[in-house]
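Researcher: Here's a chain I'd like modeled. Treat it as a single chain, no partners, no ligands.
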Amino acid sequence: MKKDRKNPSEVTEPMVAFVACAGHAAGKERFSDSCTSCAEAVEKGFVRGECRSGCVGVGSCIESCKKGAMRLEDGQIIIDRDKCDGCGDCAKEGVCPQHLIRMIPADATNFIPCSSTEPDEDVVRATCGYGCIACGECERACPEGAVTIQNNHAVIDYDKCVGCVACTVKCKKKIIVDTEHELPVLKDKVAFVRCSGGSRASKLFKDLGIQTCEEAAKMDAKELGICTTGCCGQGSCTAVCRYGAISVVNGTAVVDPEKCVGCKDCTYACPKHLITIVPYKGMKLVPCSSTDDYEDKAAVCDSGCIGCEDCKNNCPNGAIFMEEKHAVIDPNICEDCNMCQYVCQRNVIKEQEVPEYIFKQREVLGLGEGE
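Model: Modeled as a single isolated chain. Structure tokens:
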């Protein structure tokens, strides 16, 4: 039974060790073959683009554990909670030069595996997929005041934490580990790719030997005879997704809304800024962001919005507007009727379907609108 942390008993609470870092950005690969201790790695120093606060992955802490509860696996320190007796030897001063090992209650269910001190959100996102961006959403959401931002990363006070889902749901980066609830279910927003016709561009770039979206985005699309704003299809977004929620299908990035948790990492990875975050609810979406004229669009893409405005003129709720020659649907107004799909000449508008179990689980968890 979970302990009520608001009314702790006088009995000493069982503790276990926890490594406040889940990333590989602190030079782990570089240090693995060149250093014999974590202290040596930290003394050697970090290079541009590496996290200066994370685990260096050499594994010196393992030697301090007398119970064999720690092991090094793919550069990650794994703690066997069943073997850990909470002695605290690994958390003592001098063991971890980065001060990443903390003792936490054995029955804790929420964890924040990051100790980043970097104040710049863009730097954190570019450096580590598991990095805390110190946005403060978790702190504001916690009903018990158990989460605070300290030295540019979130920290949980387990004397106050009651194991609710508030911080997990509200975390913008979706790095908070929750062992009691499914993160893909506890979400209100997911990513959406504003393009559905990148097959021609993707094939062309591959034929030219181009392998990254960044390189492809620098090419003169008009000269190549492809959409100037469409998906490059080389997978920069898929490389950063920690949940396997985005893949390239027929040359275009496609998001699986059931797997996506809305962390926004893919939105930062796309050099063309084609990926946006939308509410996870039944609604209509326009997968096109083309700013070209009608003739140019029709010549390079069979699935692009041509800006005819039929959807806008027939929407009974006024949820559709035109933005730079393509239609956009306001999710706050859309009532998920089928009128826009019915009148769209090119069958551009897509429907986002949300499984019924999502609604049922949210109801059971007591999550209100926007939580």
